[in-house]
Amino acid sequence: MDLQLWIMINTASVIGLIYLFVFLYTNTSMEKKLKYNFYWIMGLELLELIFYNCELVTAGLPYPTMHRILLSALGYTIRPVLAFMVLWCTMQRKISRKRGILLLIPLCLNALIAFSAFFTDIAYSYSPDNRFIRGPLGYSSQIVTVFYLLLVIIFAIRNAKENPVMESAIIISTVTLIIISMVLEAVIKVRFTGRAVIVLSTIFYYMYYQTQEYKEHMQEGQRLRTTLEKQSQTDGLTGLLNKEAFKRAAENVLSSSEDVNMALVFFDMDNFKQVNDTYGHVAGDELLKKAADRMKSTFRQEDLLGRFGGDEFYVLLHGITYQNLGRRLQLLIEDMHLKSEEGSLVTASVGCAFLAGGRQADVEELIRIADEALYEAKEKGRNQYVIREVKNRGR
To answer: Which of 71, 153, 163, 282 fits 55 for a cystine, CB–CB 3.0-4.6 Å?
Structure first.
């Protein structure tokens, strides 16, 4: 064979296989099972390349030999096996063992047809001067290959809702290109175009998979960072904002809404220490979680809810009138009539700092005033609220 022609036939496939091997070998993060599947496909592509080149050598002889018949039979068999591997890699998690065995039947039939060339002419034969003659079943290899590839397309379409849309589109487009290349092979009678397209399509899908895996790692990292950030800002027991996060959020609201009425509510649970000391921290924690749940149902979504520790809870109400504030605090007190599982009743005493629109105060000042109001409510007998209006001070 002419060296220039040999280079033209093999260059794309050889370079592609080398690249694919390097990618797989150096990839330490890829799932082992998936990597082995790619290795299998790469190995089959390499075998087909070897068989084809050996057959080209025997085709140059002046007469047919048993070696050429064997190489042709192996070549006829290997590509359907390659297509079956693509199908298996695509749907192995969705297919039962019984169906997997049924899918092997076309593969076995094609192998029987291919190797029947040793004693029949139904697949192919050779003339005395070593010319290839296709028999009545000479296209069995192409038919079985296309059959498996069409199953891949059907599977990708049926599972488009479960898989990422782009993955299904990639599978369909690459398999379609392989089928087109095989049709061209049958028309122009040259087999190397299909093999080159298969190798390049494998690399393309590998690169796509790596891109998707990288994106998933990035998204997982972002989810982890979001979770850690949320954990650093929330109270682990109740899910409310912790002390520092509440103060930061409240300061942001105050600085951006200076002309809007604000109210900072501070309450703790009467007799909570007695429940904690008598029945233990587990009972106390259950009461704290109940209190947080009641807060979430009592206040609006835009209100800030926080727990500073122990049984101390804070709420920043945004855009509320003085009249509505009293009703809201009375509702809070009623909602905080909680019973422990042991039957102990817990109530709430509430202090509130009301900041009228146009007046200024920082978070620490509001907390101080609300704390004074809470102390007054307890002095008056607990289970009630006291509101103190913030005077007009500079920050």
So the answer is: 71
Given a cut of 80, whether residue 20 has pLDDT beyond it is: yes
Residue intervals of the chain classified under CATH 1.20.1070 are 3-225
Tokens 């009539």, residue?
A: 337
Q: Where are the alpha helices (DSSP H) in 60-139?
A: 66-91, 97-115
Would you mind telling me the total number of residues written for the chain in this entry? 395
> Which CATH number is 3-225 given?
1.20.1070
pLDDT of 204 = 74
Give the domain 243-389 fold. Alpha-Beta Plaits (3.30.70)
Query: Tens digits of per-residue pLDDT, 98-110?
Result: 777 888 999 999 9
What is the C-alpha separation between 385 and 353, in angstroms, rounded? 11
User: What distances in angstroms separate CA 128 from CA 132, 138, 183, 271, one per listed residue?
Assistant: 10, 19, 29, 107
Structure-token pair, residue 75? 């070549």
- The Cα–Cα gap between 348 and 14 comes to 78
Q: Which residues pair with 354 in a beta bridge?
A: 263, 389
Look at the pTM and tell me if it is higher than 0.85: no
